[in-house]
Design goal:
Layout: E1 3-12, E2 15-27, E3 32-33, E4 43-44, H1 45-53, E5 56-57, H2 63-67, E6 76-79, E7 84-89, E8 92-98, H3 107-114, E9 116-122, H4 132-142, E10 145-154
Parallel strand pairs: 2-9, 6-10
Antiparallel strand pairs: 1-2, 3-4, 5-10, 6-7, 7-8, 9-10
Length: 158
């Protein structure tokens, strides 16, 4: 399954020490299923599977909320100086690819100094569009935005 990732930084306006590094991951497909009974609601299979792996549904995007996202059991993250990111658990890869062309200044240093990366996941996002923030907020309000944290290691940016 094709996935895309976009890194970002989130900070409160009054405190520089509250900056949180995150990466948003989305997929090329949306997989929905439903119960065959009348009036059964469709269920996003990717969202459901990730909730079962330890991710939590977000209801707010504040830095303190992201910092308190649950640790995804068994998962780790590795970034390399060439802007590659690997996320997953032993024996399975969730994401293995680049961080894109628009890695924010200080993203590597912020993520590595904290030692944890917040992973946001949402379906039906187009990370190639300029309105990524608006799309993410729509996913938040639609109940499609999940968050988890993984321990992070790696190399600083070149």
């Amino acid at each position: 399954m094709t996935a895309w990732a976009s890194p970002g930084l989130l900070a409160t306006e009054d405190a520089a020490d509250s900056v949180v590094a995150y990466v948003t991951v989305t997929f090329a497909v949306t997989v929905q299923t439903s119960d065959p009974h009348p009036a059964a609601e469709p269920v996003d299979a990717i969202t459901s599977a990730l909730l079962g792996r330890g991710f939590a549904m977000l209801t707010d995007m504040g830095p303190e909320v992201l910092r308190a996202a649950p640790v995804v059991p068994g998962w780790t993250g590795v970034i390399t100086g060439d802007d590659q990111l690997r996320l997953g658990a032993p024996g399975e890869q969730f994401y293995d690819g680049d961080l894109g062309a628009a890695v924010p200044a200080r993203w590597h240093a912020t993520a590595l100094s904290r030692g944890w990366l917040v992973v946001l996941v949402a379906t039906r996002l187009d990370l190639h569009r300029d309105d990524r923030a608006e799309q993410t907020h729509s996913a938040l309000h639609d109940g499609r935005l999940l968050a988890g944290q993984v321990p992070l290691r790696g190399s600083p940016a070149p």
